[in-house]
Amino acid sequence: MIRIVTRARIEQLEHDFRSACERARQASGAANEAFGRHVRELYVATDRAERAEATTTEVGQLLARAMEELSAAQQELLRKDIEIRRLRAELEDDSMEGRTLTVLLHYGEPHTVYASREDAHADTATHGVPADRWVPSGERPASACKWRCEAFIYDAASNGFRRAYMPAPKPVGEAA
User: Which of 124, 126, 142, 160 has the least C-beta neighbours within 10 A?
Assistant: First the structure.
């Protein structure tokens, strides 16, 4: 079959072809722009997800350390609570009658309380007084001595402590 095509028909076909190419080029450009937007959005979403994952890991590590510290603190508190209960039971079981305490006086002012004279003498070495250089203070007032140990004994009648060694009473005005 033979077909005769006129010049006008060829021009019309060429015009339609150019229009179709232009529309295809525009559609391709729009598709490329949309693809670029989607790729950028994908990179942003991936970056956010990676940062969130890193933050989650870091927070998890911080939480694990905090839980370890909390556990250690709870164990320490439990040990201290047990020790306090033991000491309370010991205090409640022991009669205070006859128990002595030693008070370290610095120029007559209370400085530290010790369970025994030996503990006081040992600790005063940290204040510059060797444990083997203690001598009786005699009749001097407590305020005249730089460091002085005084023993106190529990007196149940007064529900408190009194001096274990009372100084000899002096006659007042020679009237004794």
Answer: 126
